[in-house]
Amino acid sequence: MANLKKIAVLTSGGDAPGMNACVRAVVRSAINNGLSVNGIYRGYQGMIEGDFIQCEKHTVSNILHRGGTFLKTARSDDFRTKEGRQKAYEQLQANEVDALVVIGGDGSFTGAAILHDEFGIPVMGCPGTIDNDLFGTDFTIGYDTAVNTVVDAVDRIRDTAESHNRLFFVEVMGRDAGLIALRSGIASGAEAVLIPETVTYIDELIETLHTGYLQHKTSAIIIVAEGDDEGGAYEIAEKVGKKFNSYETKVTVLGHIQRGGRPSAYDRVMASRMGNRAVEALLRGETNKMVGIQRNELVLVPFEKAIKHHKQINQELLNLVEILS
Questions:
Q1: What's the gap between Cα 71 and its chain centre?
Q2: pLDDT digit string (tens) for 62-83?
Q3: Of 280, 284, 299, 293, which is closest to residue 143 (Cα–Cα)?
Q4: By residue range, what is the domain housing residue 209?
Q5: pLDDT tier for residue 21 given thresholds of 50, 70 and 90
Q6: DSSP 276-297
Q7: Same domain, yes or no, for 49 and 153?
Q8: 123 and 99 in contact (C-beta within 8 Å)?
Q9: Which of 98, 131, 133, 267 is catalytic?
C-alpha cells in the first residue's frame, strides 16, 4: 500500500454532468480511508496559482445532482510550459499533496501523465467528457446525460417537424467523434446520422429523404455531428436544399445545452464508482492510469493507451441507423 496522507482532486477541460458526483466520491472515499483531501479550483491553472481548498465530507454535500463542476474548470496555457508545471508541482508540495486525481478528457490526462513523468507525483484519472471518445472505457462521465439531453430536444423538434411537414437538421457536439450523434440518432428515430468517422455523400442523403417522402413520411430528422466532413448542419442543409425541396427545411444547433443539466442516474452511479476506484488504486500504489468501465466492470487503463488509441465506431449501430430509418 502506498504511503499516502493527502490527495488532491481537480476537474479539467470541458465540464460534463457527473463530474460533481465523481469529486464527491473521491473526497468521501479518501476520508473513509484516513486521507486528507484538497480540492483544486479551475484545474491546472488553479494548481499553478495555489487555489486549493481543504475538503471535508460536508464540502461535497448536495452536489451529486448538480451539473457542471463545483470545483470549476479552465484550460491552462501556462501548464503547457515546463515553468508552469514546475510552479504547479511546487504548489502541490507546499500543500503537502502526495497524489492527484484528475477528472477530464484526453488533454487533461496528457497533462497528468507529463506531471507524473517530470516530477513523480502519483496520478489517477477519471474520464469526464461528454464525447465518450477515450479508448479503454465503454462510457465516459457525462456521455449518457448528453445523449439523453439530445434525445429530449429531438423529440420536441419532431413534434414541430410532423406538424408542419418539415425537414430538420439538428447539429450536436462532436468535432472529432460522432458517438453522441450516433446513439441519440438511434434513440430519437432519426432518418440519418452524419458523423466524422464516415464519409457523407449528399446525393445518398437526398435519396434517403426522397424515398421517405414517397413512403408518405410527413417529416424527417437528420442528426449532424459538428465535425462531419461535409460541414455543420447549416452547410449541409444548404447543399441538400439545392436539390431537394419536398419538405420545408429548418436547422437547430443544440450547442452547449448538451453539456449542462442534472446528470442521469447512470452517470451518477458510474462517476461514483470511478471516483472510489481512483482512490483505491492510489492506495495500492497504482499511477498514470485511467479508471475505465468495460462490460460494467471497472478497469485500469494506462494513460498512454487511453490518449493515443482511437475508439472504433460501432458498426452495428451504424447499420442500425440505416435499417430503422
A1: 17
A2: 999 999 999 999 889 999 999 9
A3: 293
A4: 145-259
A5: very high
A6: HHHHHHHHTT--SEEEEEETTE
A7: no
A8: yes
A9: 131
111 — pLDDT class (breaks 50, 70, 90): very high
pLDDT score recorded for residue 1: 55
List Cβ neighbours of 198 (8 Å cut-off, separation of 6 or more): 178, 313, 318
Please count the structural domains in the chain. 2
Cell numbers 444547433 correspond to what residue? 253
Q: Could you report the per-residue pLDDT of 134-156, keeping only the tens digit for each? A: 999 999 999 999 999 999 999 99
Please give the single-letter amino acid code of residue 151: V
In a domain, 293, yes or no: yes
pLDDT at 164 over 90: no
| Co-location of 154 and 255 in the same domain | yes
* Cell numbers standing for residue 243: 436539390
CA distance 140 to 306: 12
CA gap 81, 115 in Å, rounded: 11
Question: Dihedral of CA 32/33/39/45: which sign?
Answer: negative
Active site residue 131: yes
Percent of the chain's residues with pLDDT above 70: 98
CA distances from 67 to 15, 141, 142, 228 (A): 8, 11, 9, 28
In a domain, 322, yes or no: no
Q: What angle do CA 79, 93, 4 make, to 5 degrees?
A: 115
Q: How many Å apart are CA 99 and CA 19, to the nearest integer?
A: 19
Residues with Cβ within 8 Å of residue 201, at least 6 apart in sequence: none
